[in-house]
Amino acid sequence: MATTAGSNTSPFLDPGVCSRPDSLAILHLKRDLQVPTVLREEDDLKEGYSEGKVTNTRFGSFPHSTLIGVPWGSQVRASAVDTGSRGRKGIIGNESRGEKRKRNPETPEGSTPPTEEREDASAQKDAVAASTGFAHLLPPTPESWTVSLPHRTQVVYTPDYSYVLQRLRVRPGTVVIEAGAGSGSFTHAAARSVFNGYPEDSTPDHPNDAPVKPRKGK
User: Fold this and answer.
1) CA distance 109 to 71
2) Which of 23, 2, 27, 143 lies closest to 79 in space, CA to CA?
């Protein structure tokens, strides 16, 4: 079950009103094309984009700065991203592996090497809307996750897990034991079916909520 970093709540069970950093989101591009992505405020993979963390799709590029704090269901315009700025990826990647840069003998002592100048110039800039391309930002659901997830294992699709859960008479508070989560398709559907509130008096994201008293299913 995917959870939000720094929080005990899952975006599948409590996505909130707007998208949040370090939380899973779904980019709905068309009926049969959805892209899952974890929203990041910073470029954790250091891909070298000037706009920070960017998700590239066939319908355009979407910097995460334009996706965070947006109400779910909003239409987000694609941005004009300079994909050529990814040339810094190799430099940053080598340094992260402990490889030292070779100093040019012609570079005077105390001067700034060209690579450092490029890193200084790589400060995140504001995204500029592109002329074409858009996507709808959606919260994750078991159905959208099943459609968009990478199929590395056998996937239990929506009609199948709906039938299984119905036959098991799963309800909020029911205890379900699953051996092997795999792709997480059935796991997220089962977790939503048995979800009956968090055991704490209140969740970190909603401290003023009334206490939730768990109920046991039969």
Assistant:
1) 52
2) 27
d(CA 99, CA 36): 33
Q: What is the mean pLDDT of residues 109-119?
A: 51
| pLDDT over 80 at 217, yes or no | no
Residue 91 reports pLDDT greater than 50:
no
pLDDT value at 4 more than 90: no
CA 199 to chain centre: 26
Task: Look at the block and give the residue holding tokens 């994750």.
Answer: 140
Place of tokens 């699953």: 178
Share of the chain above pLDDT 90, in %: 40
**SS3 state at 147:** helix
Nearest-angstrom CA–CA distance, 216 and 198: 13
Task: Measure the CA–CA gap between 5 and 28, rounded to whole angstroms.
Answer: 23
pLDDT surpassing 50 at residue 6: no
What Cα–Cα distance (Å) separates residue 169 from each residue in 13, 172, 186, 194?
A: 20, 10, 15, 10
Distance between CA atoms of 187 and 181, rounded to whole angstroms?
6
